[in-house]
Amino acid sequence: MSIERVLVIGAGTMGHGIAHVAAQAGCQAYLFDVDQDVVQAGLGKVKANLQKGVDRGKVTQEAMDAALANLHAAPADLADAAKDMDLVVEAVPERMELKQSIFGTLGQACPAHAILATNTSSLPVTDIAQTSGRPEQVIGMHFFNPVHLMKLLEIVKTEQTSDEVVAATREIGERWGKTCVVVKDSPGFATSRLGLVLGLEAIRMVEEGVASAQDIDTALELGYRHPMGPLKLTDLVGLDVRLGIADHLAEVLDDRRFQPPQLLRDMVAEGKLGKKSGQGFYDWST
């Protein structure tokens, strides 16, 4: 199963990152969003990130030029954008009804061979696949932020996902420079479930005055060799994203381990969403 043409739906933080790695690996990558200004902003961020790579000696100018030549704004109509694709990766906000609507369109518009992937970090892939009419071709491709730097790709297979689709997804993930792990479709998969428990407990420790956010993070980084502490990571992921995942897992697993601390709810209500808003557990405004 050859994957050369890739459509990424959603041009936000995750979407433009996925388009970045696809284009840099030689695929023709098309970025789609309902807001064309967001598409242009996403393309601009890919260019800026590639330029940072060039400036730091991590990417050659030739590689940057080749990646940008492979990167395109998709047609404004989703069905039109999807009609010639080998792989479609959906990276829109974590709302089941929105994702199901998109997969309903993709099931009708995509070629028969196309793989339909979702970047969801917590929603059931099986439920997302229901509206596609071809659940055997639907799979989870859970990337990590920033996509062009983080090496992990969590591949989520449902009971209906075909072995051929799993194999092809692993192959394209490795081609894009990722180390792949395969997990079954279960609440929170592996990474969101484990990472969330640690992050929520760290927030509770701040809430209870056990230690500062910086000291908690330093303890995990130096004591357990975590590359980034759980609170700085929460800022990077987005406090609103973490809250949404926690609420979902608390409901579907009926488990108090995932109940969000009041501090998290309060910070999201105040607009303190982490790096993307300039303020979270750290000040990102400078």
Task: Describe the model.
By secondary structure, the protein is of the alpha/beta class. It has 2 domains: 180 residues, NAD(P)-binding Rossmann-like Domain (Rossmann fold, 3-Layer(aba) Sandwich); 78 residues, N-(1-d-carboxylethyl)-l-norvaline Dehydrogenase, domain 2 (Orthogonal Bundle). Helix 5 links the parallel strand 4 and strand 5. The longest helix is centred in the first third of the chain and has 20 residues. The N and C termini lie far apart (46 Å). The mean pLDDT is 95.
What does this entry show, briefly?
This protein has 286 residues and is of the alpha/beta class. The chain contains 12 helices and 8 strands. Helix 1 (13-24) packs across helix 2 and helix 8 crosses helix 11 (239-253).
